[in-house]
Each structure stands twice: as C-alpha cells, then as structure tokens.
Design goal:
Order of helices and strands: HHEEEHHEEEHEEE
Number of strands: 9
Strand order of the largest sheet: 4-3-6-7-9
Largest sheet: 5 strands, antiparallel
Distance between the termini: 57 Å
Helix content: 25-40%
CATH class: Mainly Beta
Strand content: 25-35%
Shape: globular
CATH superfamily: Carboxypeptidase-like, regulatory domain
Radius of gyration: 21 Å
C-alpha cells in the first residue's frame, strides 16, 4: 500500500459517513467490480497509466505550467459511485451553502467508497499517487479493466480575521471566524486499461470537472484578539 493511500485512510478515519452516502458500498456490487480486476491481476494482465497535470500555456508556442502535488487516485469504476458524484455536482451551484458543502460531500463519498472497498478485501485496487514537480505521475502496474481517475488540487487563500475590540471581543469570544479558504479543483476521468499498453492521461485547466471551496473556519487564538481599551 502506497504512502498516499495510507494518508487517505488516516483522513478517512476522521470523516463520519453521511447517511445516504453508502450506495456504492453494496457488497454484491463491489464483488462485481473487483472480479474482472482480480482475474486480470492473477493472470498478470497489467497495463500502465502515465499522466501529467498542468495549466496550458497562455500564448501559442509557450510552455505549460506544471501542477505539482496533485493528489491522484485510480479506483475501480462504479456506476453507483459515479451517480453519487453526479448528484453532488448537479446542485453544488444552487447556493453559497451548497458550494461550501460540495467539497466535504465529495470527500465523504470518496472515503466511504474507499473504506467499503478495503473492507471487502479490495484495498489493492486503490492506487494513489501525487504529481511531481514536473506535474508527472505514473501507475506502472494496473490490472486490465475499467477504472476511474479522481484527482484534486488544493490552493489555499489566507485572510486575516476581524480584530474584535471592547464589548464585541467579549460578546463574540469563542465564536469561529473565517481565516481564509481553500479552492479545491477536481478532475474525474474514465480510464480503460489494456494489458501491455500505456494509457496516457492529461489533466489540466481546461478539463476540470468541478471547482469547490473549503472555508478555514476556527476560533481565533485569544492572543490575536485586541484587548479592550
């Protein structure tokens, strides 16, 4: 198991699955997903997936800008999981609240699917990597079959909290404030792996699947509050 997957599992342990986000966790459905991949694995039918993450050049003939540290997952393709993701995307622009809820919903859905797959004995079919400084990533031994590439890139934006004084400082003590937000860009692509072949994948600024935001909302340190005058 890669370091990337271990890190994802640690995150997953902190996420409580939301009711209704268990459609992709059907034991029978997972067995159907894993069977052809397990068969390919047993007979040594492996292909590879080579990818690159980047922003396309602004001018013709220019060099693209690589995206380092993009988290990339290859997961068995699941119609139920795909439908769940489509449902989240369909309504995420309905309101500001829906926009802010999209990222945690996607993360919870993904972690729930990962956990269910692992519990069903399919942890070897969760393949994780992170793009290098050049934007490149590679999965060298992927069982032949249908996969989904799910990737995300996080861009933090800091913001100084409002400095409270006097009565306001006392009244709102202990209330969370927004210290900034993180833009989270997602990519989602079907990948069909063939034995002995190299599948080339490109994720860039023009084929993004969804862009969400996550607020950094927390209680300020008391030392950051301006003392009353």
């Amino acid at each position: 198991m890669t370091k990337m997957i271990r890190r994802l599992l640690l995150v997953g342990a902190l996420v409580v699955a939301t009711p209704g986000l268990t459609g992709a966790a059907s034991a029978a459905g997972l067995g159907d997903l894993m069977a052809p991949l397990q068969s390919a694995r047993e007979r040594g039918a492996f292909g590879s997936v080579d990818g690159r993450a980047y922003a396309e050049a602004q001018r013709g003939g220019g060099e693209p800008t690589p995206y380092p540290d993009v988290s990339v997952l290859l997961m068995p393709r699941s119609a139920q999981f795909d439908s769940e993701l489509d449902g989240i995307k369909a309504s995420y622009r309905d309101s500001i609240d829906a926009l802010l809820e999209a990222e945690p919903k996607l993360r919870t859905a993904r972690v729930t699917f990962e956990r269910s797959l692992i519990e069903a004995g399919g942890g070897q079919f969760l393949l994780g990597e992170s793009s290098k400084a050049t934007g490149e990533f590679r999965f060298p031994r992927v069982p032949e079959g249908e996969w989904t590439l799910f990737a995300w890139r996080e861009i933090p934006h800091s913001k100084a909290p409002i400095a409270l004084r006097g009565a306001d400082a006392r009244r709102y003590k202990g209330r969370a404030q927004v210290f900034g937000y993180t833009t989270v860009i997602f990519w989602r692509l079907p990948v069909d792996v063939k034995a002995g072949e190299v599948m080339t994948v490109r994720i860039h600024d023009r084929n993004q699947w969804l862009t969400a935001a996550r607020e950094d909302r927390r209680i300020p340190d008391e030392k950051q509050q301006t003392p009353p005058r």
